[in-house]
Structures are given as C-alpha cells and as structure tokens.
Amino acid sequence: MNFFKKKTTSHNVMLLSTRGGFFHRIGRDYYVDWGGMLGVVCVITLIFVGLGLYAYMNIEHRLSEASTLDTAKKPETVDEQKLQVIIEQFSARAAERAILLKGYGGFGDPSL
What is the pTM of this model? Predict the structure, then answer.
C-alpha cells in the first residue's frame, strides 16, 4: 500500500518549458495567478508604507525646524485706542440686541 502517492502536476514542468513560457501560463495556472496577485499587493503595500514614512519624516523635519526658531522676538502689543473703539462698538451692538430680545414694548392688539 502506497499512502503517499506522487502527485503529478504540470506546474513544475511548464515552468521550465520554453514552448509556452511563463507569461503563457497567466490565466491558466492558478499558482501563477495567486503569486501575481500576491506580488502586486505586496508592491502596492510597500509603496503606501514608503509614502507614509516619507510624510512622517517630512512632518518630523518641519517640527524640528519650528522648535529651533528664534523665540526671543518681542511680541507685538495691542493698540489700546483701537481696542477701546472695538469694545464700544460691540457694547452698542449688545445693547441693541438686548432691546430686541426684550420684545415688543408697545400696546397690544385689542382685537386679539
């Protein structure tokens, strides 16, 4: 009794044959098809990983440049006169809004 029979496939034989070649087997041999799909997926994955690493390194480089900038510059001060004008304008708008929110203050309609 031979439990381990030799399985004969044309997979290895076709790989070495010069008649059809490797590209002739595409679409006819599922080993080649799966290998091709796996290869394409691996290449695409490597491309995306490479692009992600490139973006990460670019961001890290920009952050390291930003931390070395001169921070000893004197900060700009706010012009007090312009600030007072803006505060007065917004105070007037707030007063108008408060009047509008209070509602109608005149006489009511007697027909209602």
Answer: 0.43
